[in-house]
Amino acid sequence: MSTSVSDYAIATLGSHTALQILKGAKDEGFKTIVVSTKKSRQVYESYKVADKIIEIDNYEDYFAIEEQLIEQNAVVIPHGSFVSYLGHQQVKDKVKAMHYGSKGILHWEADREMERTWLKKAGLNVPKIFRNPEEIDRPVIIKFHGANGGFGYFIAHSPEEFHEKMKEFPDEEDYVIQEYVVGVPMYVHYFQSPLTGELEIMSFDKRYESNADSIGRIAARDQLAANIHTSYTITGNIPVVVRESMLPMFFEIGKNVVDVSKTLDEVPKGLYGPFCLEGIIDPQLNFRVFEISARIVAGTNPYTNGSPYSWLRYREPMSTGRRIARDIKEAIQAGRLEDVLG
Amino acid sequence: MSTSVSDYAIATLGSHTALQILKGAKDEGFKTIVVSTKKSRQVYESYKVADKIIEIDNYEDYFAIEEQLIEQNAVVIPHGSFVSYLGHQQVKDKVKAMHYGSKGILHWEADREMERTWLKKAGLNVPKIFRNPEEIDRPVIIKFHGANGGFGYFIAHSPEEFHEKMKEFPDEEDYVIQEYVVGVPMYVHYFQSPLTGELEIMSFDKRYESNADSIGRIAARDQLAANIHTSYTITGNIPVVVRESMLPMFFEIGKNVVDVSKTLDEVPKGLYGPFCLEGIIDPQLNFRVFEISARIVAGTNPYTNGSPYSWLRYREPMSTGRRIARDIKEAIQAGRLEDVLG
Amino acid sequence: MSTSVSDYAIATLGSHTALQILKGAKDEGFKTIVVSTKKSRQVYESYKVADKIIEIDNYEDYFAIEEQLIEQNAVVIPHGSFVSYLGHQQVKDKVKAMHYGSKGILHWEADREMERTWLKKAGLNVPKIFRNPEEIDRPVIIKFHGANGGFGYFIAHSPEEFHEKMKEFPDEEDYVIQEYVVGVPMYVHYFQSPLTGELEIMSFDKRYESNADSIGRIAARDQLAANIHTSYTITGNIPVVVRESMLPMFFEIGKNVVDVSKTLDEVPKGLYGPFCLEGIIDPQLNFRVFEISARIVAGTNPYTNGSPYSWLRYREPMSTGRRIARDIKEAIQAGRLEDVLG
């Protein structure tokens, strides 16, 4: 296997975090390939991040062009849209190109029960789930995962209120009743290198959600009159830094999540590369974690030229996308490429 | 005409986006001039962006010193305050100094009806306007443009509610009844170069409005007790990045707006240079556009040292202010300065 | 006294703004020392900002290791946690290491009455304080400073409402009744150099407070049902830029605060180094100031690699932490180190 970066390419689908992944790969000396729809290609042309654009009609058609990636000796970087379009099962069973990161871990993040098992094993403070509505004894949020995913979420405080409000959603069966934690959302962007064995915190963000992040702009009296429901569609991300005294805790829980991942079924190498813990900081500064993303998140997009944290450790702009490419480059040069592929 | 940048200056009024315009001009090798009040000059001194400060008592006194700008071979950059203090009609009829950008387009952005015609012709998804209050059939926002500009906006859901609430504003005649779109505000910063013919997306922001962006910090019960009205005074800007999968749409609508601008009356060169589309992203990810600014916007101010987007395309810090200076520099060097003046 | 930077170290406690202080000190050529708990040391190791880590069990144990700092010829930088853990009185009476900044000013910022006297003397527009609840004639916020600090704040509009709501807090005696100003929070980060005599504005931020900055994400009807109280625990900071036309005012009030500080008791050199004015911009663009921090604030943490403002004045990344180190460096090189120590 070649130990020269110029013999390899880095490839991904044209969406989600492709801009920073490709830019970062170029900065590390890789040839870059974006697999893009006709509609999206101008984005990757305009920002000059792709050496080669492979056009497909739908992102689901990835497998029709995968052979080209293999011919180019490309390492594929999975991001949220990649996993979402292909499905974690297909990523595991069908992707034949070199793939950065553990494939098995994608199942653990996709299945709500498995994800919860993992997070609890790592000792994280996860919100309580109520299996039985009759047990509701505090404010809860009812989240829908099916046709209403992201929409129609509501808050209830008692079994009675739950049943009353559920009447608006007679056909919904895929929902979860979660303890409602009042506090500010915070997304922590980690990077675990299998080469250095070190855990890094790259940055933080808060999402910009429609309409959750704008209903507060409507005076309460007008909200009530308009009968506004909250929805949580992600439209973008806003940079944020965290209270410095919370960093030791964030390092600790990140390490616990990585450690536990090595004990999970069908994840021989455990979790590595970029990942994100998503939670709420409550007024007592507890971090209540409700989700993990086991790959790069779009919350790193404000930091294509480095974050307030990555600029401390690196003397050059280090996005999470570039950190991935750096990991692959160091693996290639050390003859250890296998160590970062999953 | 000289093709040497050192024979030219770049000038603007000391407000709005002058800091980045002047800094960007210096970075491109221009001499810089700020026309400033006594009170503001220390700002431009402190940040060391102006080679020359011309002091005036009021920004409306611009014409009294314009001859000095002409003597210095200065290209004037119009920003929001420049257009606001001088008025689009005076900019068009009286400005004799070299002026970057189409003057005629300023009329199209200033007149609400003309602006709407333009945006609709470009196929943009604009909120419905109700000419007749009796036709109100959904939530609407009543915006005042006269003495109450930015203040006292209210929401209504029916003709009855409209008439009831208007009783608080007996003297207001200059208002518009607009469909109320629930979703997050997003401001898209474009740059269209007449030299390269390319449309670029430089960055995004959300405004920081008093009190709209703080009433959500007040618990609903307290808001109701305090009888708080919403106001929309701009106090600053917050950086944001957009969901990457929305970028193709943003490129497309930007292009449509530029294309249509070339067909508008009295705008021979069409729209070029920086401009901004201002809208709401709703929970279904539709971008509902309610305004266009046909010149640099203050929302680009977080990015004096480059944005998460401009760092992808450029290998140096590229603010929108610097992008303007780059355009002028390239025009000068190509002997095509006329092409960027309006 | 040596005029060579390499003969000195810069030291601080491992919390608050230590990352940028230490990074900035390294960038200016200093040896860096962090005094850290066992739990926090990995943060300063991971970001590679500390040449030396002195471990202590509690931050209150600072005095047990101070001798080591003196031996290293270290200048100690006080930040919010440093002042909070040690107390302003102990900082003044017991700190023997070289200390950057006026010690006496810390008393003026710590005592609410003295702080208010200072701000009013400087002509700042401070919110009205009601000594007697019977005088409440407008919306007021009741802030607790004792056991409930940051929690349970409430809003009242009349003496009757005040007495009614205070029934929830029968044991609270340490509170203040402050005029409630509706508008957006804004934190202004200043730097006053005793060497250059110049006042600089480094950056701005808004805090990210739990739960104040998330209750607006809950629809009004749900808030009312959940009986949510507002709390103001700081969890992080969000970058923001301010309307450019407000900068002359911000420079003016900053200068007034510095000028008045020189007349205060027991502050021979007045206020210098970094400080912050904390207030609300109301919809009429008045800046209502409710607090001053007379040392570096955590709101500067988004700008470890420079801010949209510092990049205008400096041609290199200039955090507030680095600005401090630059001040000390210039003092050392000019043989004027005494001028920056307090």
Compose a concise summary of this entry.
Chain A has 342 residues and is of the alpha/beta class.
How do the helices and strands line up, and which of them pair or pack?
The structure is a homotrimer of 342-residue chains.
Chain A: E1 9-13, H1 18-27, E2 31-36, H2 41-46, E3 52-55, H3 62-71, E4 74-76, H4 80-86, H5 88-94, E5 98-99, H6 105-110, H7 112-121, E6 129-130, E7 140-144, E8 154-156, H8 159-166, E9 175-179, E10 184-192, E11 199-211, H9 220-226, E12 232-239, E13 241-242, H10 247-261, E14 273-281, E15 287-293, H11 310-313, H12 320-333
Parallel strand pairs in A: 1-2, 1-4, 2-3, 4-5
Antiparallel strand pairs in A: 6-9, 7-8, 7-9, 10-11, 10-14, 11-12, 14-15
Strand content of chain A: 15-25%
State the major sheet of chain A.
5 strands, parallel
Structural class determined from secondary elements of chain A: alpha/beta
The outline of chain A comes out as: globular
Quick one: which chains have the greatest interface? A-B, 51 and 55 residues
The count of DSSP E runs of length 2 or more, i.e. the number of strands of chain A, is: 15
Distance between the termini of chain A: 17 Å
Q: Average pLDDT across residues of chain A?
A: 95
Sequence stretches where pLDDT stays below 50 over 5 or more residues of chain A: none
Please trace the helix and strand order of chain A, writing H or E for each element: EHEHEHEHHEHHEEEHEEEHEEHEEHH
Count the DSSP helices of chain A.
Answer: 12
Strand order of the largest sheet of chain A: 3-2-1-4-5
Radius of gyration of chain A: 21 Å
